[in-house]
Amino acid sequence: NFDIIISWFYFNVKTKEPTNNMHTGISLTAFLSVLFLLHEVSSKTVTMFYDQEITSDTCYNRYGRPHRCLPEFKNIAYQQRIKVTHTCGQNGPTKFCKASYEGCGICDAKDPTLAHPPSHLTDLNNPSDLTCWQTDPLDSSNQNVTLTLSLEKQFDITYINLEFCSYRPDAMAIYKSNDFGRTWTPYQYYADHCMHMFHKSTRGIVSHGNEVEALCTDAHLLRPLRGGRIAFSTLEGRPSAPNIDANELLQDWVTATDIKVVFMKISGNRRHLGTNKDMLYYGVSDFSVGGRCKCNGHASRCVKNHHGKLVCDCMHHTSGVNCDKCSAFYRDRPWMRATAEVTNECIACNCSNHAKHCRFNPELYRLEGHGGECIRCRHNTAGRFCHYCKQGYYRDKGKDITHRRACIKCNCHPVGSRGKICDQATGECPCKEGVTGRTCNDCKPGYRSTKTKAAPCLDVKRNDEPRKDARNTDCKHCRPMQLSVTKYCKRDFGIRVKILTRTHVRGWMKFTVEIEQVFKWTGETRLREGKKAVWVRTRDVKCSCPKFRLSRRYLIVGFNDIHEIQKGIVVSQRTVVTQWSENIARRVAKFQRRQKKGTCLSTNVEENA
After folding, report:
1. What contacts 24+ positions apart, CB below 8 Å, involve 464-473?
2. Does residue 318 contact residue 69 with C-beta atoms inside 8 Å?
3. Where residue 258 sits, what CATH number does that domain have?
4. Which of 188, 201, 234, 502 is the most exposed place for a label (fewest CB within 10 A)?
């Protein structure tokens, strides 16, 4: 309301001479009397709102509660640079005349005392020392002249005011841009013949259906013809103006980054101008724009950032040039502009003190009223709210979930457990057969440790190994079988295996092995790498003939002995078994080269292992 009063005062009191187009000016004394009366009548209402010490320079009251705040209302064109398409005296001194009874003058851009530069448009407007920008006298073929004000960022525009030191133009238009001059929207048209110039009817009526459309008027042609004013109010006569907070179209209507005024036709009043062409020019003494830095109710001032750009000093956990988005961690509900009734401050996400960033999920907000989703949870937590432990960790029940050490690492035993993921409530790791303990680090009763990954604990009763006893076992049948090129060449296969498990099966010891490499194979069915069963008679195992140990690698070179019962590879007395080593690897490679050349059995000299 006070903005309206100030605007009214600006248009009705701050005049250099009485004007008919804006009503007759009143005295400063009368204005102050009216202002005092308004203050007395509304004192109780004002007191009610200011009990909480709401001031214009803060966005919170003394109790820390947020409320809408607005930057200072001011003439945002003051001392700003205006870009013009024509200025008098640029090409040398030119003559101009004011009126037949006021005489003529010279405009010379190079002489400061005779110049009328664009800076006079936005300097201090002192009626006792009037300064004007003006053009050279223009002929009828081209009378278009443009004034452009760039504001650097978005502003909420209240009025645009032009005071003339020449005759007001017969036709002109005011435009605004909301995208820094890339596109332009007409604000208002002025013409002596609206239909002819702009295809608009004179004094059109604004309704809810067209309240963001430009109108055309000829009211600016009323007296005084010279030295008059043209003033445009962005919200005057707009039906939704009292409820602009709920009308996005009208909010956009008052928003601008640039203002452009286009003069199209010089006054054609020959009665006053006569035939003197030196009077056909445009002259403006003041170009003012009333408005505020646009901050959507979330800032009380605008400042220069580190790049020298004008930005809002945002509050209410908002950010952006115009406070038009929520800050990084305050996205539990969608951004909204502040209104007189509701501040609509941004609300922090609930991340249990484990995240610094979150994102807004509109679907979750629609369903639950909370749209924050935490991202990059720390301290080994996970989930939308960082409210449970991530895989590989479990809750410490003695600490709240907000504690930075609320999640403890599972530490599942690399051999005894089936994986690294434990029960997030108890911390129990998934153990292999026969293994027990929270971290799977011990064998169950009745099991013994094998120190192997495949079967770290074996049932003593089912998998008891026959014990060697040299005094009670006849091992004369076991002869040491050493590797030689002749043995390699004469046998049917040669493979490298890793021993995985062993099981006693009625006179046989079944070894489950992983075939890692096949060097030779002469069987009908191709032998592939992978798991396979290797069978050895129990009496040979007792004599360590061969001596297989779990998790170790061996070279097996033998014949395709077929047994009626066992399905797999049978190790007999004619099979060469030796532990794998780099030396054995080199010898096998040498044997393979001989085999490929066809010289495998060309020597009678045996190379013993």
Report:
1. 464/504, 465/502, 465/504, 465/541, 466/504, 466/509, 466/538, 466/541, 466/542, 467/542, 468/542, 468/543, 468/544, 469/542, 473/539, 473/542, 473/543
2. no
3. 2.60.120.260
4. 201
pLDDT at residue 222 in the model: 72
Q: Compute the distance between CA of residue 214 and CA of residue 189 in angstroms, rounded to an integer.
A: 7
- pLDDT < 70 positions in the chain: 1-57, 99-101, 223-226, 268-275, 462-474, 476-477, 562-566, 601-609
Domain count, the chain: 3
CATH number of 570's domain: 2.40.50.120
* 525 in a structural domain: yes
**pLDDT recorded at residue 524:** 73
In the sheet with 508-521, reading across from the earlier edge strand, the strands are: 569-570, 530-537, 508-521, 493-505, 553-558, 576-579
Omega of the bond leading into 546 within 30 degrees of 0 (cis): yes
pLDDT of residue 325: 96
First to last CA, the chain: 106
Tokens 């102050």 found at: 32
Alpha-carbon gap, residue 10 to 14, rounded angstroms? 5
Q: Residue 379 half-sphere exposure, CB side, CA atoms within 13 Å?
A: 20
Q: How far is CA 484 from CA 557, 569, 577, 578, in A?
A: 10, 21, 12, 11
What is the C-alpha to C-alpha distance for residues 433 and 416, in angstroms, rounded to an integer? 9
Looking at the fold, whether 507 and 439 belong to one and the same domain comes out as no
pTM exceeds 0.90 for this model: no
Q: What counts of helices (H) and strands (E) characterise the chain?
A: 10, 32
Report which of 424, 314, 329 is spatially closest to residue 376, judged by C-alpha positions.
Answer: 329
Peptide bond into 93 cis (omega under 30): no
Give me the pLDDT at residue 181, please. 95
Q: How many CA atoms lie less than 13 Å away from 94 in the CB half-sphere?
A: 20
Q: What is the pLDDT of residues 193-220, one digit of tens each?
A: 999 999 999 878 899 889 999 999 988 7
Q: CB under 8 Å to 221, separation ≥6 — which residues?
A: 168, 170, 192
Q: Kindly list the distances between the CA atom of residue 32 and the CA atoms of 35, 156, 585, in Å, as whole numbers in the listed order.
A: 5, 27, 108
* Residue 70 CA: distances (Å) to CA of 160, 286, 293, 343: 20, 26, 8, 12
From 25, 289, 21, select the one nearest 162 (Cα to Cα). Answer: 289
In a domain, 215, yes or no: yes
Q: Which residues of 50-64 are buried (b: 16+ CB within 10 A; e: fewer)?
A: eeeebeeeebbeeee
CB atoms within 10 A of CB 584: 17
Query: Whole-angstrom Cα distance, residue 87 to residue 110?
Result: 12
Task: Identify the H or E element spanning 253.
Answer: helix 248-253
CA distance 561 to 556: 13
Please state whether beta strands 435-436 and 442-443 pair in parallel, antiparallel, or not at all (unpaired): antiparallel
Handedness of CA 511, 512, 517, 519 (dihedral sign): positive
DSSP letter, residue 173: E
pLDDT tens, residue by residue, 176-190: 999 999 999 999 999
In a domain, 55, yes or no: no
Last residue of a domain, one of 427, 460, 493: 460
Where in the sequence is the domain holding 227, given as residue range(s)?
73-293
